[in-house]
Amino acid sequence: MRLISNSTDANRDFRLDWVAVKVYYSGGTPIENTYKAQGSWAVSTGTATDGSGNAFHLWYPTNLGNGGYLHPVLTWGNGTNANPTQYADTLDHLASWGFVVIASDSGTQGLGDLMLAGANYMIAKNSDPGSIFYQKLATDKVGAFGHSQGAGGTLNCVLLSPSTFKSAITNALPNPMWWSTPVPDMTTWPTSVPIWFTRGSKDTLIATESAAATWYNAVPARRPRRP
Amino acid sequence: MNPTNAYADAAGYAENVNGAADRHRYYNYGISIPAGSAINGIEVRLDWWLDSRTGTNSMDVQLSWDGGTTWTSTKRDSTESTSEHSKTLVAPQTSGVVPLGQRRS
């Protein structure tokens, strides 16, 4: 690359601390190529209702426990007024890689309690001899993830029960100004639960880049942050 | 002065004294792209400042895909500051690309 310094004043001094280049590319990486394809598990779907009357959709490997495999569990949070079937492609894809996915039918999941209820429902089914999930689940490998309001629910459900969760992912986590419920204090985020914040780079309204940085930087670091 | 200082976000900096209309090349970043990849975009980040805001000042970036024979159109940072500021410019032919991630600080 070349840099050109422009000035109408011949005496102007230009000082440059860093010129960095980032190249974005797709394909060619073994991890991406592997996991963007459908996994090897055939997928079944279903519905469930817990003891409190909360309704859920399920995506899970058809041959549960095949080869003695214990399936990790994911609880999903919808965006505002959305329902799980609107995310079916993603949730099906995850199930094809061996996850059991439970998704609350609610379109208001910001508090995280329904996502936690979904996780707890699956954990309970692992101990229920009458369930197809009996002793087929890795209940020590439970993750939470969600979109928009459900991304907020992801934060809250982990904070409600940190010991339940192994990891978390937020997609388009709204800026604090959009929250109608208390904004989680991310300084209390458990260091035992790695979290990945993702957002659309063209979103300048709901989940902005600066807010994402604020969310990210508030999380206690277990290790030195990557530059 | 000290042009190689600009290869790293470190304590030192490069300086172009009386630099109006000067050009400087930066290259050999050692970026490794796996075979078979598609290039979706290129970003250049500039951390720079001026000794004074007198006059009208800016910094341009151009990229070359053939070792400097041909150059892209210019992307410009017109922010005039006497303290360091950062500006990320996206290569013209890659505007509209959805970046895969953001640099974390």
How much strand content do the residues of chain A show? 25-35%
Write down the overall geometry of chain A: elongated
Question: Which pair of protein chains has the largest interface, and what are the residue counts?
Answer: A-B, 40 and 68 residues
- Secondary structural class of chain B: mainly beta
**Number of H/I helices of chain A:** 5
Strand order of the largest sheet of chain B: 3-6
Q: Given the C-alpha coordinates, what overall shape of chain B results?
A: globular
Number of helices of chain B: 0
The count of DSSP E runs of length 2 or more, i.e. the number of strands of chain A, is 9
Helix and strand pattern of chain A: EEHEEEHEHEHEEH
Structure description:
The complex is a heterodimer of chains A (227) and B (105). With 227 residues, chain A is of the alpha/beta class. Chain A has one domain: Alpha/Beta hydrolase fold, catalytic domain (Rossmann fold), CATH 3.40.50. Chain A has helices at residues 30-35, 88-96, 113-125, 149-160, 209-218; strands spanning 2-7, 14-26, 43-49, 55-61, 71-77, 100-104, 137-147, 167-171, 195-198. A 7-stranded mixed beta sheet of chain A has the order 3-4-6-5-7-8-9. In chain A, strand 3 and strand 4 (55-61) form a beta hairpin. In chain A, helix 3 (113-125) crosses helix 4 (149-160). The longest helix of chain A has 13 residues, at 113-125. The mean pLDDT of chain A is 94. Mean pLDDT of chain B is 83; it is low at 92-105. With 105 residues, chain B is an all-beta fold. Chain B is 0% helix and 32% strand. Chain B is globular and about 50 Å long. Chain B has strands at residues 14-16, 23-25, 38-50, 57-62, 75-77, 85-90. Chain B starts with 13 loop residues before the first strand and ends in a 15-residue tail after the last strand. Chain B has a domain at 34-94. Classes of the chains: A alpha/beta (227), B mainly beta (105). Chains A and B meet through strand 1, strand 2 and helix 5 of A and strand 1, strand 2, strand 3 and strand 4 of B.
